[in-house]
Amino acid sequence: MDYFYGPGRNHLFVPGPVNIPEPVIRAMNRNNEDYRSPAVPAMTKTLLEDVKKIFKTTSGIPFLIPTTGTGAWESALTNTLSPGDRTVSFLIGQFSLLWIDQQQRLGFNVDVVESDWGQGANLDILASKLAEDTAHTIKAVCIVHNETATGVTNNLAKVRKILDDYSHPALFLVDGVSSICALDFRMDEWGVDVALTGSQKALSLPTGMGIVCASPKAIEASKTAKSVRVFFDWKDYLKFYNLGTFWPYTPSIQLLYGLRAALDLLFAEGLENVFERHARLGKATRLAVEAWGLKNCTQKEEWFSDTVTAVVVPPYIDSAEIVRRGWKRYNLSLGLGLNKVAGKVFRIGHLGNLNEVTFISQIL
Ligand SMILES: Cc1ncc(COP(=O)(O)O)c(C=O)c1O
Fold first, then answer.
1. N6-(pyridoxal phosphate)lysine: which positions carry it (predicted)?
2. 20 to 30 Å CA-CA from 16: which of 197, 243, 313, 346?
3. In Å, what is the CA distance from 196 to each residue of 26, 124, 178, 206, 219?
């Protein structure tokens, strides 16, 4: 028998889903509740207020959706765009590829800006596309803040600056699935129109909640966007927000209590300290990779990710074998290389609720 759970704890170091801290596990260990009681709307109201802080927004409207990152993408796109709309989207790894595939399947006209896997989004091409687009046919710029497949972080402030340089009104849609709550994210300052994340990443919750935040401009766009949407329609949420009952359908009570506990932990530590901790762990990982004589898949320092490192193995080694052996010998879960980099890289996740001792003793 090749695969079994060996002795000791499973050391979970994939870049999501991540380890769930004990206070969050305890907070979720509870019975179901009637979401129409006065208690759940009251809790939801404070959650919606508090969740804005992880996006650094005061004007955004958040939606806590029973879904995953993929559903959060769909919510962002279908609420703001109409079939045939032109988007610019950067292909730099497996997750940006999947988002582009979703955009195409939803009927948008996607300008794909491709870079080598290991590089960041090519923003020079974005600038030239916006410069040419005086008729404003580009309706949205879609970008993955942190490409989890390659460990590449894109510079969102630069994207905003380019949009501003050309006074371009395109919506700015950002996948923050492996960045938000780990890397600094400034929705209002960067003029992000829709930002989104998934509960199982840096929030360190179970999978199952997509957290989407829409700017006033995105909410305005949703009033005329013609994409078909039912489950993800923001209008239904807004209706129940106005009624003060908050939920168009049954929420997971356990996840709501978990989110409360996860936010409390983040705020107690202080978001800036959370970012610093991730920066330290990211740097430690890169130093270790160097010491091992291996290379980082990320080609330039400006793109280094503080949440995930994709480690390139020598060509005579199959990186999947390293992941397999880690699992078998040490009960260690590392991330596989995906798609183009399958067999070539393995990934170390260093995001979420973890500290130096946990990380260094179990991984480095
Ligand atoms: C950057 C990024 N976006 C989107 C997704 C898709 O999220 P989910 O698997 O929760 O649907 C992932 C998953 O790992 C991701 O890393």
1. 201
2. 313
3. 26, 25, 10, 16, 14
